[in-house]
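Aim 2 progress update. The chain analyzed this quarter is reproduced below.
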Amino acid sequence: MRAFARRPAVVAALAAVLVALGAAGAPRAADPPLHLVLTPSQKPTDLIAAGEEFGRALARLLDRPVRVTVASDYAAVVEALRNRTADLAWVHPAGYVLANREAKARIVAKNLWHGKATFTSRFYVRRDSGLTRVEELRGKTIAFVDPASTSGYVYPMVLLIRRGLVRNRDPKTFFREVVFAGSHDAGMRALLNGHVDALASFDMAREQYLKDPAERERIAWVAETEPIPEAGIAARDGLDPATFARVRAALLKLRGPEYAALLKRIYDIDGFEPAEDREYDPVRAAMDELGFRPR
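Predicted structure tokens:
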């Protein structure tokens, strides 16, 4: 100690180095986990297992812990962003528009799915029903997914409204009975088992949820919507810009053979690409047509 005391310049320099090292390392060690909420578009028990693995992969790229949970329903995803209990949320397109309007959330990156950044919604029927046109669904029973689901309600309803089949934005003016399955896979199973006559779901739902070719062959579709911009991950209002940028950069690295199996399990996607808010303007227009308004 006395030797250092005789060399104040050395002491000062060493102290500066130690402070700099401490400052560089401290924020990472002190950073709390980022909370990522998943939309329950498929069976929650399957989703949480894949989600937790996804969280670990993202955490390694961020050098920061990531905690993953599955929301109870679509509305709970928006609520988690609004009350800031979630830092990030995997949102479907309509969910993002609601989260942006009601919670000022910002899109970070959108999914690449089967090589595309758009998808559609279809009206599915059983092939042996003899139904070939959406107009023939009058008086039938249908399963939608969730009132806030883009491909499982919003876009199919807009198609019905534009064709003059639904009045006053009320599906019961066309269908005899309307149910909400809660998830796409549950809706597909309800259709296959004869519990409903039709299902509104995304364009690859049959291939994704019916692995048996014989079951897949039993399902056909009778109408298809306009293209929909892909789902993705949104950040809550107030997430600092540096963290936002790091999350986007990390998501863009989650592709290729190393992550292919994981991404297929989580939402059957290929990876991510950057996304901007304006890309969701068509979804806003569809939601306005259906009567969705900010709270």
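Residues 1-29 have pLDDT under 50 and may be disordered. The chain has two domains: 29-117+229-290, 121-226. These observations will guide the mutagenesis experiments scheduled for the next reporting period.
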